[in-house]
Structure prediction request, 270 residues.
Amino acid sequence: MPRKNLTVNRARLGHRIAYALRHPGRVPAYLRRAGRDAWLRYRSPDHVSYYRAVMRSDTARSPEAAVGSPCRARWLALGAMQFDYLVSHGLTPRDRMLEIGCGNLRAGWRFIRYLDAGHYYGIDISPDILFAAQDTVAEFDLRDKRPTLTPVRDLTFAFLPDAHFTVVHAHSVFSHSPIEVIEECFAHVGRILHPSGWFDFTFGRTEGEAHHVLREDFYYRTATLVALAEKYGLRARFMDDWEELPHGQSKIRVTHGSEVAARRYTVSEG
Ligand SMILES: C[S@@+](CC[C@H](N)C(=O)[O-])C[C@H]1O[C@@H](n2cnc3c(N)ncnc32)[C@H](O)[C@@H]1O
Prediction:
């Protein structure tokens, strides 16, 4: 299991120098990435545009690598881990699922196969990775499941219906998001979340200072995200059992904060 280093600040110069001395072979690739990212940031008016450009560049090389898997075997294993965890936490074929930042369906193809037809909805800021997601649907012959795959500019969910989704899932998305993007999601996810639904997301965890590396990888304190969710009437719970799995990030589950909040929405069917 990869051990989480919860106190290190990866943005500090001292850490970066020590890391370079420990792993000299990784320095050229890091410098290339830092140069490319500086150029993309210069050309992009905001974080989402910048990250969309990062995804475009990464997807052109390899869709698997663009979502963080160095090879096909890891891509399959990481998807299975997400899927098994959600099923063991109550995901059923009748759930209506929204996957935020679905990428090329590393876990999504398993959700699509498992859920009733038409019950999977994937959104992503990157059209390029959504093209790769279409390839995944074809590869696993899941056309009859009629998944929806939609590009988005933001996380306001303005085009999605009230109280519709019983499960919202975002794996390795907030680990690439500045706090204002996460806040935008919290401000709006309650509207589309079914009263008894839940929203699971992973995040890069630190118990020190919040920091980021190249504005690609972000690290937050658990308490910061819990408080931010509460600000929008949501209840957030740290998922201890996710920590037992071989994954470098941590997981939080968000639900409606109170009976009253949950009853704000009328629904036809549980
Ligand atoms: C590391 S990949 C993970 C993809 C997928 N969740 C998985 O586990 O394979 C992160 C994905 O989130 C998308 N993404 C990043 N920021 C986003 C945002 N603010 N809204 C929607 N998607 C976002 C990226 O384009 C990318 O496809």
Summary: The radius of gyration is 18 Å. The first strand starts at residue 97 and ends at 100.
